[in-house]
Specification:
Distance between the termini: 27 Å
CATH superfamily of the largest domain: Zn peptidases
Largest sheet: 8 strands, mixed
Number of helices: 10
Radius of gyration: 23 Å
Helix content: 25-40%
Order of helices and strands: HHEEEEEEEHEHEEEHEEHEHHEHEEEH
Structural class: alpha+beta
Number of domains: 2
Length: 408
Amino acid sequence: MQKVVERFLKYVSFDTTSNEESKSVPSTSGQLVLARELKRELTELGLKDVSLDKNGYLMATLPENTEKNIPTIGLIAHMDTSCAAEGVNIKPNIVRNYDGEDILLNKEQNLILSPKEFPELSKYIGQDLITTDGTTLLGADDKAGIAEIITAAEHLIKHPEIPHGAIRIAFTPDEEISRGTDYFDLEKFNADFAYTIDGGELGELEYENFNGAKANIVINGRSVHTGRAKDRMLNSMRVAMEFDSMLPQFEIPEHTEGYEGFFHLDKISGRVESTTMMYIIRDFEKSRLEVRKNRMHKVADYLNDKYGEGTVVLEIVDQYSNMREAIEPVIHVVEDAKKAMGMAGITPIVRPIRGGTDGARLSFKGLPTPNIFTGGHNFHGRYEYISVNSMYKAVEVILKLIEVYSLN
């Protein structure tokens, strides 16, 4: 099982930050560098049908070793890391036998991972943790998932006495920028259902996620000399501030949890003459997402009426839907995952994903794909960490899940 840690530490050394502004597929070349290395590893392990296409989708097969009729299971993880924090030159730290106290991540910056701010750390007293050095994210999202899938596959190859059906593996690019399934070849993958190994803490099991949309806004102002600005200047940045103030001020990520949706101002850049804004809009119910989208249109209409047509140009694009709708008709995929966790001595934590996932889009394309934990916490930032024990358990759950289907 130590190999899962060795693999993870190796994979995080690759710069695979995705780039939303890029038009290439994958969005960054570093993802292909990792994909080629993973292709080499999968081939050397003895997996079959190992292929890497021009878009950066890596697939492989562990053939069935029994004549019993067992469904073909897919295991999926993504290779890219978020652009929300620095993802280059990652230097992981291993904290042995965590004592429950503050962890000094970076002495120069006096950066501390503290149980006072992150109380869930107390769950891992006595365990080994892998943290950042305080200057980058860690990359457990989702290189931990890759390491766990490959380690489980290696175990099955080395233990042919364990019966299993065909297992399909896929590592995808650009999940972090909601493009992870754009060129996913479902016919080639040819699985009955799948699981993304891309969740958080030990026991997480998710089959609900936000309905998501993105709003791109351009505010057109009018710049004149400040000495003669009275009744002439229109400061686009102030209009942008007014736009934001007209949205519900407590329906933002900082003040919401559970099934509560939000508006999130993700980017803003401007000068007097022009300001651009980008919001993500989230809700678990489609009807409530539509209410949020309509709210933004009404604000734009109001400001255009106030300052002149064309002042606010708003474009809203739907990104993904709540996979619950596609999973419920085949809810056994969730129940079997619960059973596998129970066999591994883990209490399932079934909760909604307050975000999106490749699994949501795949589920609506016809491949039901709930999400299973990797063991990580605080993704997308310098306080990210993962429990080594949880990584071991994630491998065990994958193996137990395969056992569940061989016994059904």
